[in-house]
Each structure stands twice: as structure tokens, then as C-alpha cells.
Specification:
The chain has nine helices and ten strands. By secondary structure, it is α/β, with parallel strands linked by helices. Strands 6-7-8-3-9-10 form a six-stranded mixed beta sheet, sandwiched between helices. A hairpin with a 2-residue loop joins β4 and β5. It is globular and about 50 Å long.
Length: 249
């Protein structure tokens, strides 16, 4: 459902993403981990069609993101770490607007929106302007609107930003349920606990390269570490970091 083939992105002399290959199956829950400036967000934006790759190919559900953008985006939902919302709309108006963008029938918009509003505890906020809502509530609205058209692929960057423990648990449960129902879920996060708890496989990006992919046990064997995911992550990223050159005298 997700395919990256030698995907590369350069910004001048900076190679932000360097020849990544990755395939995610239908219904797979995949967590992408990496230090700051590792290339996670750039990779995701190329996959979502927001940034054009310097070279390589990205596919969603078999459709090339650059050559068949509308077909790819019909099957995709993407929530960035700081999603853009139309602040003057109410939460209900925003959900309806999102459904119309995907040419959903009004009856289906109504049915899906009411189900998501109830699931994400948004009923008391649904008729309030988005600008009046807290960051965590806006995050829930953004995720609900992304799920409205029943995407085949769901990509989310730092899903738990601003969420309290109760609503973070709801988001986790919903994403896992969608994955079990056949939706391919890709989560980019700094929170190792999310990857450890939820992911079928984990990918670690470092220096623009995908340095490791596998289940936690497979990554443990690759790293040689015996502890929790934090130890595995630190071992793999440390081994992929070149030693600095000594200062010249």
C-alpha cells in the first residue's frame, strides 16, 4: 500500500533523504523513528505529495504520487504535526468541508462525522469555532477529519502532540482498530513508547538513510542490544554516526 523506491531529496548541498526503499503492506502499522533532522518529515511530505523528490518514486495503493496525484490522494489521509485548520469554521463545518473535498455523499458525511465526533469526544465542541478550541481538541478534530473518507492509507506525524492521556489512548485505539481493519498506518514519532506498544514493524531513519527496519526483536538482534526499544534505538543511531574528525593543529 506504501512504496518508496530510492526516494531522495536534496536541498542544495544538503541531502535530507538519501535513497530510501520501503514497502508497507495492507493493514500494517509502521512506526518511523529518528533523531531531530533525520529526514522523517521530509520523507512523509514526499509520500503525501507535498514535496517533489529529487529522484526516486513514491506510491500509494499502487498510484504514483507525482504522476497520479489525485488517485493517490483519494486513498490517503495525512495529518502533520501542526495541522492547518480553518479557524473561523466550526468543528462540524470543517468535517463537512473535508468530506465535500473528497466528493463524499452528504448522507455518508453525516454518518461518518457523527460516529467520529462521538468516538473522539467532540460533541460539546462541534458547534464552536476552531479558533476557540485547545490545541489537543484541534488535534482530535484534525485526526477525525482525516479519517472521515475512510482512507486506505493513514499517515500521521507526532500524533500525540497536545493530547492528554485519556484522548491519547482513544487515538491509539482508533488507529490500531483501523490497522486491523486493513488500513495501512504510518506514524512518525519521537515517542518510543508508541512504537513499542503499537507497531508491527519499526523503521529508524538517521542522517537521511533508513538504517534499520524490522520488528522489535529483529532490531534487537541487529543492534546487539538486549534491553528496551530506547537502548536499541540509541545503539543503532550511535553506530550509524561517524566519528568526528579530530581538530587540525
Amino acid at each position: 500500500m506504501i512504496e518508496l523506491r530510492q526516494i531522495t531529496k536534496r536541498f542544495g548541498d544538503l541531502v535530507a533523504v538519501d535513497g530510501i526503499n520501503l514497502t508497507l503492506a495492507k493493514g500494517e502499522f509502521f512506526a518511523m523513528l529518528g533523531p531531530n533532522a533525520a529526514g522523517k518529515t521530509t520523507t512523509i511530505k514526499m509520500l503525501a505529495g507535498l514535496i517533489k523528490p529529487t529522484s526516486g518514486q513514491a506510491r500509494i495503493a499502487g498510484y504514483d504520487v507525482q504522476l497520479q496525484p489525485l488517485e493517490a490522494r483519494r486513498r490517503l489521509a495525512y495529518v502533520p504535526d501542526f495541522p492547518f485548520l480553518y479557524d473561523k469554521l466550526t468543528a462540524w463545518e470543517f468535517l463537512r468541508f473535508t468530506g465535500q473535498l473528497f466528493h463524499m455523499p452528504e448522507e455518508q458525511i453525516e454518518t461518518n462525522a457523527r460516529e467520529l465526533i462521538a468516538r473522539f469526544h467532540l460533541l460539546e465542541h462541534v458547534n464552536r469555532p476552531l479558533e476557540s478550541l485547545s490545541h489537543g481538541t484541534r488535534q482530535r478534530v484534525a485526526i477525525a477529519s482525516a479519517l472521515l473518507h475512510d482512507p486506505e492509507v493513514f499517515i500521521i506525524d507526532e500524533p500525540m502532540v497536545g493530547l492528554d492521556p485519556q484522548h491519547a489512548r482513544i487515538i491509539k485505539d482508533v488507529l490500531k482498530e483501523r490497522s486491523r481493519a486493513g488500513v495501512t498506518v504510518l506514524v512518525s514519532t519521537h515517542q518510543l513508547s508508541i512504537a513499542e506498544e503499537m507497531a508491527d514493524r519499526i523503521g529508524i531513519i538517521h542522517g537521511g538513510k533508513l538504517i534499520a527496519v524490522g520488528t522489535r526483536d529483529e532490531l534487537r538482534r541487529q543492534s546487539g542490544a538486549t534491553g528496551q526499544l530506547e537502548e536499541i534505538f540509541l545503539s543503532l543511531t550511535a553506530s550509524a554516526t561517524p566519528d568526528p574528525e579530530p581538530p587540525r593543529v
